[in-house]
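Workshop exercise sheet. Pairs work together: one partner reads the sequence aloud, the other fills in the structure field after running the prediction. Swap roles for the next sheet.
Pair: D.N. / O.F.
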Amino acid sequence: MQLNDAQKDAVRKWIAEGCGLTEIQKRLNDEFKLSVTFLDLRFLVLDLGLTIKEQAKNTNAGLDLVKTAPGRVAAEADDMESEALGPDSAGSVAVTLDRIVKPGSVVSGTVRFSDGVSASWMLDQLGRLALDAGKPNYRPSQEDIQAFQVELRNLLQSRGI
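Structure field:
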C-alpha cells in the first residue's frame, strides 16, 4: 500500500485528533476512496512513527475496576486490552495484558511499579521475560520485581495461559 504525502498528512492529523484505526480506515475510504486493511493501516502507523491514543471505554456503569488494591491484578476478565493505569495504582504493582500480542512473544502487556514507572513486558517462546521501561538504566526494586512476577503468574493462570 502506497499513500501520497497528502494522505499520510491526513492520517497524521486524524491520529493527532485521537481517531482509532477503524475510524482512520473509514475516513481513508470516504475521503480518498482507498480500501486499506486493518493490518496494513497498523503497519503504516508504525512506519510513520505515530502512536494511537487509547480511548477510555466506559462500560463499568460507575464501577472503577482499574483501581487496584496492593497485590491485585488490573485487568478485566472480558477485556485484555492494555489500559492506562491511573495514579491510584501508585504504591502497588499492577499488571495488564495486551489484546494484540507483540511480535515475537507468546504474551505481552504493561506493568506499573510501586514508584509509578510504567513498563512494557513480553514473554517469548523460550520463557524469557523482557521488560522495557523506556527510561535508560531504570531498575525496579527487588520487591517490585517479585510482586510483578507473582501478579504476572496469577494473571496468566487466571486466563488459562
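Discussion prompt: Confidence is low (pLDDT under 50) at residues 56-90. What would you look at next?
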